[in-house]
Amino acid sequence: MTDPADSAEPTDEAVVEAASDAAEGLILSRYKQSDVTDMDVTVRFESGTLEVDVYLNAPDEPDPESVAEAAIEAAEAAVDELFEDT
Questions:
Q1: Which helix (H) or strand (E) holds 56?
Q2: What is the dihedral of CA 70, 66, 58, 23, to 10 degrees?
Q3: What is this structure's pTM?
Q4: Which residues of 37-54 are buried (b: 16+ CB within 10 A; e: fewer)?
Q5: Residue at 1 is within a domain
Q6: Rounded to an integer, what distance in angstroms lies between the CA atom of residue 12 and that of residue 51?
Q7: Domain range for residue 47?
């Protein structure tokens, strides 16, 4: 018999945490933490809609804008994977 809790969709909190962890993980995989002057990852998940904003103040190599965009994509992919696993 399958436990109904096993097939439940992830909580909003789990979605936000997965997205945030993925974005921060990607950023810190591209830069040493001590090289990042400022970083802000904001994740909102409301009514099934995910919003991810990344602000990054870091050295010019690699390009911070490209890394921020990749972080957003990583966050979205992590959430997609979270929902696929349910």
A1: strand 49-57
A2: -10
A3: 0.88
A4: eebebebebeeeebebeb
A5: no
A6: 12
A7: 10-84
